[in-house]
Amino acid sequence: MRKVTLFLMVALVLLTVCFSGLALGKTYRFYVISHGGPGDPFWGVVMKGMEDAAAFVNKGNPDGDVIEATYLGPAKYSIEELVNMLNSAIATKPDGMAVTITDPASVEGPLRKAIEQGIPVIAINVPDPRPEGERIPYLFYIGGDEYLSGKKAAERILATGKPKRAIVTIHEIGHIGLELRAKGFIEVMTANGVPAEKLATYLDPTQAIEILKSYFAKNPDTDAIFTLGSIDSSYVLAFLREQGLIGKVKHAAFDVCDEVVAAIKEGATLFTISQQQYLQGYLPIIYLYLYNKYRFLPANDILTGPGFVDASNVQLVEELVKKKFW
Amino acid sequence: MESRRHSLLFAQLLGSIQRCPGFEALAGLVVLFAVFSFTATRFLTLESLAGIVTVASELGIVACGVTLLMISGEFDLSVGSVFGFSAMVFASLSNVGVPLVIGFVLALLVAFFIGWTNGLITVKFHIPSFITTLGTMMLWRGVLLAWTGGFGVRFWGKSLFLDVLNGQFFGGFRASALWFVVLVAICNFALTRTPYGNSVYATGGSREAARLLGIPVDRVKVVNFIIVAVLSGLAGCVQFARFASVDPLRGQGMELEAIAATVVGGTLMSGGHGSLVGTLFGVLLIGMVRSGLVMSGAPAYWYQAFVGVILIIAVIINTKLREWAK
Predict the structure, then answer these.
(1) Which N-terminal stretch is annotated as signal sequence (chain B) (predicted)?
(2) N or C: fewer beta carbons within 10 Å in chain B?
(3) Mutation choice for A interface testing from B294, B296, B301, B307 by most A CBs within 10 A
(4) Structural domains of chain A, with CATH
């Protein structure tokens, strides 16, 4: 009988300790909402960043806090669906949201409402381009700077020697991010006396290569190409190989993929730019947690890009691409 | 009396022009060729012509099927998705060690199945093919995106079979041009010299009259759906053979270019009238516009606008010729 009583007392104490421990911690619900679906490899990396950050905070948290992070994004690019998802998320009164401001006019209403309700909001991937006073009053922005990326790409190419003529291939005409990259690149090249222009290559590789051939036939002095995404990088590399121009034409790329990594190792591509989008999923979760808990805020926007992959770090990045960090 | 004879002669002349297949597209081709010869540097070179033929060939293989189907009074909007899906099947099987020939045949079988279902759904449920294939266009593109997670597939091996499909054989000309010419010849023979060709025209001309004549209109349509899908799959595999890589967006937008080339070539969207020779000129014309514009120094952004104008002019000429010939 005494043994049973002792056992029950010990069990009671243990249970009390356990429950008091749980009661100390708080569960934080965060959403990452973007215009890109989880099927897109780019957003797959962002999603992994978000999950890793939540797991990092949850594991052995001294206060017993728990983060529940959820990724929402339409399977196919759709602003309407993004807004629907945003409204659904706001309705659950979360402890914080990270949102892409892909179309400021469409997300302005719901986001202002959320911010008025006291929900902390961080912009990721695409900021609101308007000045501070006019823009949606989110806390700060975490993401790349497209215009700066284009400028840096041009500067890096120029540092290896001044080209005679440079082009930027653009595979999705009208994509504001791509246009900004091209703008930054062309401005720096032109300022340094290098004739530079955009060349629309579209999505079909056969057509893209014939367009490049036609351009080179007209402008045979072209000796630098900046490609704005992995799709056109692939076409341009095929073109350079077929025409025997590897090593004669400087190639700089955007985004990290198997083919570009192989080309950097081979010496066909000088470098590629990454937005390091893993950080666009990871950092908002950490910052939202720290903001909720201690009201910490960085003094400025946080730029995750342009990050560079070149001959100096390509081996390491190759491993990390396989693990979905890049 | 004299003026009546003249107008009769004019009508007869127009009638014979009207009977001459692909006349409008040929006229457009000659005019554009002449213009680009003056405006574009290096346009009149073998390399440039080879480029035009290469672009036209892959689109043309698809357009052959689209022409047959359109003459029989139906549409297929899923050709771009089938193009990408078949290429992905071929690439994925090649990567897991399946012999290339077997992978190729299996990819075409998948295309066959998609075409067959397109046809069956359209004729059995009496759904307009525009709607059926709009649905299957989204379905197969969606399956492709979900299957690949948005990642492209690259085949690193080399093979004689890939060269047979799309190797370089003379100057800048590629094997795809041979495939295209052979397929135009076969389809043209089938359409103009066989009872099946008569059935195709009759089915598209007047469905009920054709049925009363004992023509199995449903079967003719299903067979044409299968032909267009298999040819789209073939074009996808041919393109993969050149680049050894496929991305899940491959072939997007191809459906509209194939329809544009077919319509420019004089095939009626309402069915019952059209020719493979016209389509041959139509795809060459569309292939030429892009190279010609780039070589003329026009911003490649104008390409789509230019094709749009050509399409409208071609249809106006077609309609007017038909009215005058009456």
Answers:
(1) none
(2) N
(3) B294
(4) 27-143+277-295 (3.40.50.2300), 146-274 (3.40.50.2300)
Output the pLDDT for position B2.
62
Q: Identify whether B199 is part of a domain.
A: yes
Residue B6, domain member (yes or no): no
- Is residue A136 within 8 Å of A101, Cβ to Cβ? yes
* B301:A210 CB<8 A: no
Which residues in chain A have their CB less than 8 angstroms from residue B243's CB? Answer: 205, 234-235, 238
Query: What's the DSSP call for residue A249?
Result: B
| Domain span holding position B173 | 20-149+157-325
Beta-strand relationship, A224-227 and A196-200 = unpaired
A40 chain-B contacts, CB cut-off 8 A:
150
pTM over 0.80: no
In a domain, B2, yes or no: no
The 3-state DSSP class for residue A250 equals: strand
Write the single-letter amino acid at A195: P
In-domain check, residue B279 = yes
The mean per-residue pLDDT over the stretch B126-145 comes to 94
Domain count of the fold of chain B = 1
Q: Does the pLDDT value for residue B318 go beyond 80?
A: no
Average of per-residue pLDDT across A205-223:
91
pLDDT of residue B240: 93
Q: Which residue of B has its CA nearest to A217?
A: B42
